[in-house]
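ok so I'm stuck.
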Amino acid sequence: MKQISILFLSLLLFLGGCAGLPEEGPFLRDDDLPPPSEPSVEESSIPEPSVKELPSKEVSASAVTDDSVKSARGESARSDEEEMTFLTETGVPEIGAAESGGRSSTSSSRPRVSGLSAGFSDDNQQFGYFVRFLEDFEYVEHLPLTVSERIIIELTDAEGMPVLGAKVTVKDGGKPLESGPTMADGRYFFFPAEYSPQLSSYNVKIRYGNREIETTLLRQGPRTVSLSLEELREIPQQIPLDILFVMDTTGSMGEEIERLKTTIELIHLNLTSLSVPTDVRFGMVLYKDVEDDYLTEVIPMTRDLDVFQESLSRVEAYGGGDTPEDLQAALQKAVKTIRWNRDGIKLAFIITDAPPHLDYGQKYTYTDAVKDAKEMGIKFYGVGTGGLDLMGEYILRQIAQYTAGKYIFLTYGERGESEGGAPGSVSHHTGSNYETDKLEAIIIRFAREELSYQTDLPLEEPEPYFEAHKIAEEEREETLKKLFNLAFEQLADFSTIQIPKGTALAILPLAAADEDLAANAEYFTERLIMSGAEQELWTMVERKDLQSIIEELKLQLTGLTAGDAVLVGKLLNAEMLLTGSLYGREDQFELFLKLLRVETGEILSVTKAHIDRNLGL
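replied:
not stuck anymore, here's the structure
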């Protein structure tokens, strides 16, 4: 997506203007629609499925890439004097810098930037950070979605490929609690805290075609439960892909609407030119507020780009009075009126600079919408634009995380998390784990990522890691301290469970890949322990008996098994263990760190660091 030059893009978009009559009517206004009904679906006109695809994308919780962070901060060139100690940089803005802000009635008050740069945060990956974000800003007006606990059900076929569309049903004994399909990556999210705290286990049935799998989830058991079919998954000859834009069209949204008009053809081109045939459809739900000339308008799903562009060309930004808008009415239309494909990929992007009205007494709320969306397999992505306040961010992130989507924030020149615009123009609290690009590029990326799970051509992603260099102005220990502080932060943010403050942590000696690295492994272990002792989140376990325990049990630190982790942790009275392996390269060390949960022996998160040889002994 980044290979297309600006010149070519401009020419492509200039030549691409098309007009036509919508196949299902251009707009359906609120008054034209029948009363809300149960979610309807439409069978796509696609050939019968064929069987078998080969390796897809492998997902892991890890650190952000050095290249993506450099790009996010505009660090394409630095003098030697300006060189950062490590590429992930620690200077991020304080949380709460942009918790409120009024909106302009026109888009002209904001600086215009080519491409509407955007950043995104994956709250499903950095689950620990997200739960802390919810707790820190719980005072913001919102509706409850209880996600403090999460179990991921992961389904693959006989060759280890993710299975899309298997029906998952979770029961309390024989009583159904919820059901829904696995997503394109084969995963289904279950949140135990939504149900009775008296339940300690859940019965799960998964149906795929004529095949059924049953298992039991333990509330205090592993956070990821992997299951496998004995047969191969079915892949349609054309993969259905529906993309819905839920668009705030009040006066301050002009720039975002115009950008979508000029880039929709590029989005379509990128998604229809893949090696795997894709049946792409676009639709829209437009919304304003109760005082405007319409509350919602629906542009039905269509695979005809000309039809969609004709409808989109007539969308204008106007109206709006008070800051909040009626997003809840729009979500009801998105879930209950849009005719989604039955078995394919379903993505929805909410684009707004305003929080929703929660004071209208609506019976169907955004929490109802996301639960229905989860049951239908719809992923919502929240896109916060200029002026979005903390309440808006909080709710968009609730919606996105619950449906396995991501939170996107447009950037207008902020420093730190979103380089390039006016400070405080949009609320976003993402820590150091985020990436930036043009909005349309991010939409293309997410859609292609979903498609890649169902193909043998996974997206090529750079391997993520932190990196530390030796610089003359800073002592070696100070550089390592900063690096390891970031590593601890990363491991906590990406943990698959919430880590309470004061959690007992034992740091095991780093395992050296060969004897020549033994001294450096011991040195880096000591630096890790010193950094860990300064972290408010952890209570460090005394290590005086650690070495004797390891020697007594004759444990190999490399490849520590789940059983070993549980045994060592219990002997040390630790709740979690930090283990790591050190490897040597020509000009650097490679350090791999894992955070393990003693109770189950499972890996909660991992991270990786490249360390300059000059920072070692």
